[in-house]
Amino acid sequence: MAKTHGSDRPQATAHPAEIVREYGPFAGSDKVAGVTHDGTRVWAATGAALVAFDPATGETRRTLERACDAGTAFDGTYIYQIAEARIDKIDPATNQVVASIPAPGHGADSGLAWAEGSLWVGQYRDRKIHQIDPATGAIRRTIESNRFVTGVTWVDGELWHGTWEGDASDIRRIDPQTGDVLERLEMPGGVFVSGLESDGADLFYAGGGGSGKVRAVRRPRRTTPPAA
Amino acid sequence: MDSLIAASARALATGDALGALQRIALREDPPALALRGIAMAQLGENLRARELLRRAARGFGSHEELARARCVVAEAEVALAMRDLGGSDRPLAAASATLSAHADHANASQARLVAARRLLLLGRLDEAAAELAVVDLRGLPPTLRTLAELAAAELALRSLRVADARQALMRAQDAADRAGVPALLAEVAEARAVLDRPAARRLAGGAGQPLRLDEVAALLASDALVVDACRRGVGAGTAWRPLARRPILFALARTLAEAWPGDADRDALIAAAFRTRHPDATHRARLRVEIGRLRALVKDVAQVEATPRGFTLRPLGEREVIVLAPPIDGEQASLQALLSDGAAWSTSALALALDASQRTVQRALADLEAEGRVRSIGRARAQRWLAPPLAGFTTILLLPASLPID
After folding, report:
1. Which of A169, B134, B162, B352 is paired with A76 by a 20 to 30 Å CA distance?
2. What is the CATH number assigned to the segment(s) A2-218?
3. Are B4 and A164 in contact (CB < 8 Å)?
4. Identity of the residue in B7, B63, B406 whose CB atom sits nearest the CB atom of A69
5. What CA–CA distances, in Å, run from B302 to B255, B257, B273, B310?
6. InterPro entries in the record, alphabetically (chain B) (predicted)?
7. pLDDT string in tens for chain B (406-residue length)
């Protein structure tokens, strides 16, 4: 196999993920395909409906009936949601789709994040993350990972993504320029990550795939400034 | 899983196989191949389904052994639905072990159930029982639970443990009700109907009284001396003398039992055992020899005494003598009665048991096979004949529940 940019560098520190809390499974569904955070609530894509819950209590606050097959992101106003081979831009206030763009992986997409005017889309089995124009879907840049990508999020200038390959899953920070792995949070055996979102502070929310759960995972405290 | 796979699986879960296919029709990556395989199986395209599942299993990487194992199980279930029983059972056993090792208990149980049903269809009843015994029913989804109980009922019926079969069927009904799958409910109903159908006749004074399976079992368990023309043997209480491979002795036993409590005429015995209406001294001499053999064989339960015109059966103690015959007359009925033990018979063993020529038996089997009332496995000398399973094992595929493409 051709060598990709993103090889595991030996200095990538790995430690077990600290799971703080579990939410779900949510009524009417047994899986979570994507997660996002709108500042107060966590949104989980459960296949046929987006479920918003209060992370403090775990109570469901809203449910939007929308096809939601993979990653979810929030830009401050709209929810972006991968459904089949497109990305829907949904107004959470009205549950209307205000725009749709083709997904860069033509349906092989998984994982979605919003940052700095771009959408970041994981392409699952192709082990890629695309940076795309949220208005047109045009690809601006592609980062290679060395694991299947199941979730993408940006926090404090750090690019993190969830992986799920075969029988192992982790949450890893990668260098957005080179794809090099800088840090890894290993999930316990049998616990998988599908969808990833940071709350902007010290937690990640990770979709749990077929378990139907969303897990809050602690983000490691930074002792040294992040390598960029 | 990625978005189109998720969307396709979502469609499949609602029964929309075509919708599922439409989303991934052109994709060749292993999860897509697996989903296409499942969708094709649900559309009844078993051959194509098996090919797709096989390619999916090959396509998954070595680190994706869970996904690979699930594909192997799905492929085995499709093969079972196709009644293609020729392959090796090793890949399925390996997949089952992999699933157990990864604590995927539902799919590991599914693998064992597929293996057990395959063994039942192959007439390897002991192995099927061993496989079923290790399936942990607790925590199984109701669909799988239904299948497990149906297989248990089938095993019990084959060995005439009717009470056990009845209980297993009750539990199957219960599980099927919870599963709410119409095809499963129909299968359970069909299996339960088997218990109420005539399974044999009790012959007395030239007339036959139809018996249900549990009545047959009760008779066989009673103290009576039973000459069983279905399974070809003589039994009393727990003692059972199989005579399937000794047709002359069985014909004599049956003739004597039908005449009981009277005696059977020498010429009638010769006609039944040697198939001749013109007995001579040599036949009488052979009759004496065969009666001597029969006497030795049944000496624990009955005596065979000479009378002025022939012989009579005198069961020891206060035993009654009962003759069981297949529910209807004829070569085909006798064949089916023999096969109803669920074991795999060769043509020559059947011919021997029925004291008919192999050609006659082959003709009767061919007719029965055309009507779907017997099945054969293997070819040429290795060909074996089996009764269709009582519990049906129709082609219900539980694949979607068993194969989340993670």
Report:
1. A169
2. 2.120.10.30
3. no
4. B7
5. 15, 11, 20, 16
6. WH_DNA-bd_sf
7. 789 999 998 888 888 889 999 999 999 999 999 999 999 988 888 899 999 999 999 999 888 888 899 999 999 999 888 877 778 889 999 999 999 998 888 889 999 999 998 888 887 889 999 999 999 888 888 888 999 999 999 888 878 788 899 999 999 999 999 988 888 888 898 888 888 888 888 887 667 888 888 888 888 888 889 998 888 889 887 788 888 888 899 999 999 999 988 899 999 999 988 888 888 889 999 999 999 999 998 888 888 999 999 999 998 888 889 998 887 777 777 777 777 776 778 888 888 877 778 888 888 888 888 888 788 888 777 788 887 766 555 555 666 444 545 5
Q: Which of A32, A65, A66, A69 to mutate to test the interface with B (most CBs of B within 10 A)?
A: A69
Q: Are A131 and A118 in contact (CB under 8 A)?
A: yes
Nearest residue of A to residue B60 by CA position? A166
- Rounded distance between C-alpha atoms, residue B92 and residue B75, angstroms: 9
Q: Are A24 and A44 in contact (CB under 8 A)?
A: yes
CA distance B74 to chain A (A): 18
Closest C-alpha among A205, A210, A217 to residue A52? A205
DSSP state of B243: -
Q: What are the sequence ranges of the domains in chain A? A: 2-218
Preceding peptide of B261 cis, ω within 30°: yes
Report the alpha-carbon distance of residue B401 to residue B403 in Å, rounded: 6
Exposed e or buried b per residue across B71-87, where buried means at least 16 C-beta atoms within 10 angstroms of its C-beta: bbbbbbbbbbbeeebee
- Which one of 2.60.40.10, 1.10.10.10, 3.90.660.10, 3.50.50.60 gives the CATH number of domain B200-325? 1.10.10.10
Question: Does the beta-carbon distance from B23 to A84 stay under 8 Å?
Answer: yes
What are the residue ranges of helices labelled H in B197-330?
213-221, 247-259, 266-274, 281-298
Contact A47 B10 (CB under 8 A): yes
What is the residue extent of each domain of chain B?
3-146, 147-196, 200-325, 333-398
Q: What is the pTM of this model?
A: 0.79
Is residue B338 within 8 Å of residue B200, measured between CB atoms? no
CB contacts of B3 in chain A (<8 Å) are 33, 69-71, 82-85, 103, 105, 107-110
B333-398: CATH topology: Arc Repressor Mutant, subunit A (1.10.10)
Task: Please tell me the distance from the alpha carbon of residue B303 to that of residue B69, in angstroms, as a whole number.
Answer: 60
Place of tokens 């992999």: B98
Q: Chain A closest CA to B128's CA: distance in Å? A: 31
Contacts 24+ apart (CB under 8 A), B269-276: B269/B310, B269/B311, B273/B248, B274/B248, B275/B355
Region B3-146: CATH code: 1.25.40
Whether the domain at B3-146 and the domain at B333-398 fall into the same CATH topology = no
The verdict on a CB contact (< 8 Å) between B10 and A165 is no
Provide the shortest C-alpha distance from residue B97 to chain A (in Å).
Answer: 15
- A107·B64 Cβ contact <8 A: no
Partner residue facing A165 (CB), from B7, B63, B103: B63
Q: Tell me if B2 and A109 make a contact (CB, 8 A cut-off).
A: yes
